[in-house]
Amino acid sequence: SSEEAPSTDLITLTRHVLSDQLRLGSAATGDLTLLLTAIQVTSKFIATNVRKARLINLVGLAGETNVQGEEQKKLDVLSNDIMVNALRASGKTAVLVSEELEDAIIIEEKQRGKYCVVFDPLDGSSNIDAGVNIGTIFGIYRVHCLTTCRTIQRPDSSGTVEDVLRPGSEMVAAGYTMYGSSANLVLSTGSGVNGYTLDASLGEFILTHPNITIPSRGKIYSFNEGNSMYFYPPVTAYLKAIKYPAPPKTPYSARYIGSMVADVHRTLLYGGIFGYPNDKKSKSGKLRLLYEAFPMAFLTEQAGGIATTGTKRILDIIPTSIHERCSVFLGSRDDVQDVMKFYKEVS
Ligand code: AHG
Ligand code: MN
Ligand code: MN
Ligand code: MN
């Protein structure tokens, strides 16, 4: 019947990650689970602050500018501090990179662990004051060690910036939390993508979206078309093709929130394409490679989609600096392949 009793067997995020480790016999020790527990706590803490922001004078500017030249909002700074404190205290991290901090933090020996976390503490800053969805994005590397590094062999490391100047394909986990009508944490540890919803009364993230897979084609495109006059010809031609298709095809719907977390979340669930291309104004694109493009590309591929700069797989890029930017198209396989075709054919 439709009136089933509520479940008495809740699958929490921690339970799920632990059972995955057992089931997949992965080499992951409990350390990654403990690190993920610390990240969950930061998401809960940020979520409560987001909810109360208007009431406790947490909206508006903090008065400082970050290394990217953006004015920091109070919530950007608070979320950054929450994450740095919790990740350091977890004892599981060696290197931290945040959008809001110019330099990487190298964790002092006493508290050092094996993982590096790159993060965007608060994504979608421009949406905070309007109460529109915002989020946190994170990616996790293990410090270089001879036995596990796939692309570049380096000696064992105790944690330097080199440990995060690596292709996104070497991440061991990536995810985001979206602060919307509920707080949703979406995570991949390299074997598919799962979504969890915060049950605020329990204080636990509960598995609500097992095994997220992106439809192979969608009906939605998500670009800031206000940048149209700067777009390069392949992008202009692609957008024209999806807005003025040859019958019997019908045009796509436009959805653009302006918080990458929310736009990617919708793309994972509904399909379609999200794009923030490089253009004549933003020559390298706007989104940051380490803590925006890589984690979202990791999740997209794990969900069966594609993430590309237009000409190159995002996860293959080898970063040369921690705040570098890149062009991004991600989403449904067929839709992203369409845009890649325009990059091949239009110049
Ligand atoms: P952040 O708020 O962390 O600086 O990120 C903003 C990013 C991303 O969330 C979003 O996709 C994009 O910037 C929106 O940019 P526009 O306002 O140029 O559309
Ligand atoms: Mn910012
Ligand atoms: Mn961001
Ligand atoms: Mn941010």
From TrEMBL:
<dbReference type="GO" id="GO:0006094">
    <property type="term" value="P:gluconeogenesis"/>
</dbReference>
<dbReference type="GO" id="GO:0006000">
    <property type="term" value="P:fructose metabolic process"/>
</dbReference>
<dbReference type="InterPro" id="IPR033391">
    <property type="entry name" value="FBPase_N"/>
</dbReference>
<dbReference type="GO" id="GO:0005829">
    <property type="term" value="C:cytosol"/>
</dbReference>
<feature type="domain" description="Fructose-1-6-bisphosphatase class 1 C-terminal">
    <location>
        <begin position="214"/>
        <end position="343"/>
    </location>
</feature>
<dbReference type="InterPro" id="IPR020548">
    <property type="entry name" value="Fructose_bisphosphatase_AS"/>
</dbReference>
<dbReference type="GO" id="GO:0030388">
    <property type="term" value="P:fructose 1,6-bisphosphate metabolic process"/>
</dbReference>
<dbReference type="InterPro" id="IPR000146">
    <property type="entry name" value="FBPase_class-1"/>
</dbReference>
<keyword id="KW-0963">Cytoplasm</keyword>
<dbReference type="GO" id="GO:0006002">
    <property type="term" value="P:fructose 6-phosphate metabolic process"/>
</dbReference>
<comment type="subunit">
    <text>Homotetramer.</text>
</comment>
<dbReference type="InterPro" id="IPR028343">
    <property type="entry name" value="FBPtase"/>
</dbReference>
<dbReference type="GO" id="GO:0046872">
    <property type="term" value="F:metal ion binding"/>
</dbReference>
<dbReference type="Pfam" id="PF00316">
    <property type="entry name" value="FBPase"/>
</dbReference>
<dbReference type="Pfam" id="PF18913">
    <property type="entry name" value="FBPase_C"/>
</dbReference>
<keyword id="KW-0119">Carbohydrate metabolism</keyword>
<dbReference type="GO" id="GO:0042132">
    <property type="term" value="F:fructose 1,6-bisphosphate 1-phosphatase activity"/>
</dbReference>
<keyword id="KW-0378">Hydrolase</keyword>
<keyword id="KW-0479">Metal-binding</keyword>
<comment type="pathway">
    <text>Carbohydrate biosynthesis.</text>
</comment>
<comment type="similarity">
    <text>Belongs to the FBPase class 1 family.</text>
</comment>
<keyword id="KW-0460">Magnesium</keyword>
<feature type="domain" description="Fructose-1-6-bisphosphatase class I N-terminal">
    <location>
        <begin position="11"/>
        <end position="210"/>
    </location>
</feature>
<dbReference type="GO" id="GO:0005986">
    <property type="term" value="P:sucrose biosynthetic process"/>
</dbReference>
<protein>
    <recommendedName>
        <fullName>Fructose-1,6-bisphosphatase</fullName>
        <ecNumber>3.1.3.11</ecNumber>
    </recommendedName>
</protein>
<dbReference type="InterPro" id="IPR044015">
    <property type="entry name" value="FBPase_C_dom"/>
</dbReference>
